Amino acid sequence: MVGLLVLVALVVVAALVSLAVGSRSIPFGTVVDVLFHEDGSDASTIVHDLRLPRTLLGLAVGACLGIAGALMQGHTRNPLAEPGLLGVNAGAAFAVVLGIYGFSIGGSGYVWFALVGAGLASSAVFAIGSSKGGPNPVTLVLAGAAVTALLEAATQSVVLNDRATLLEYRFWVVGSVAGRPMDVLWDVLPFMAAGLLLAAIGAPGLNMLQLGDDVARSLGMTPWVHKTMGVAAVMLLAGAATAACGPIAFLGLVVPHIARVFSGVDYRWLLPYSGLVGAVFLVVADVVGRVVVRPGELQVGIVMALVGGPVFMLIVRRMRLVRL
């Protein structure tokens, strides 16, 4: 419980830093003042119109990807699993490319195409990787790899044959929380909420699933129901997050390992820990991207790829991780 309170405090600190730091830095006192008393000043406009939507979206996306990663690793019993294995990123990317190429979408229009694409791709992986007993951890990963390869090939076929589509697509595919209005968060929030609800309901059952289907069944549990619920939660959480800001690499892979060191293997605690760690991780990465190349910015997807790889190697090499 103390760990959760510390993480909540870190989330608040990270949010304040995100509101204060940018191409124009604003003192923390001023940030707190204009946050609760909008006065029309330049600082108030920057905080409310630019940085607040960006920060809230970063917190929501980071939390969703962290929890989706923990669920994915738990249901596949694979410490290297992450939400992209369900075809979420590939499905969203292909749908966005089709939207740009066929319908000339832009801006917030990416959200709905990406959300539909992520949902359809995940559903296809789920259908291919399931049997009468529900999703099978091995076949689910294999199906995800196959569907992802197919969709990535289709995506590349379109962008390499249409320059205008490539120019539009390259800005979405790097992953960024910048420039997204608050409407984007409101659009995906119901899907995030539904995913969080399914994750919370399924957390106790996920603990029993780690003992094996036969043991779980002997304890009165119906494994395929809980597996289906868990995969649906990953679809909703990762799909909504990817639709909102594009694919973010490594977050769903790294965060559960960090959270597991502090929470242990009980998924009733691991999921909230992963959500809070993911929120802090993404917002801090976004702040780093604003600082390292001033007055320009690095998109958070690039920062996560640059930081996430070395961090994950450090975790694997130097820390004694709790086994799944």
TrEMBL record:
The keyword Disulfide bond does not apply. It comes from the Bacteria. The chain crosses the membrane at residues 55-72, 84-103, 109-128, 188-209, 229-258, 270-292, 298-316. It is a multi-pass membrane protein. GO terms for biological process: siderophore-iron import into cell. Its main location: membrane. GO terms for molecular function: transmembrane transporter activity. Keywords: Cell membrane, Membrane, Transmembrane, Transmembrane helix, Transport. InterPro entries: ABC_BtuC-like, ABC_transptr_permease_BtuC. Belongs to the binding-protein-dependent transport system permease family. FecCD subfamily. This is Iron complex transport system permease protein. It comes from Nocardioides lianchengensis.
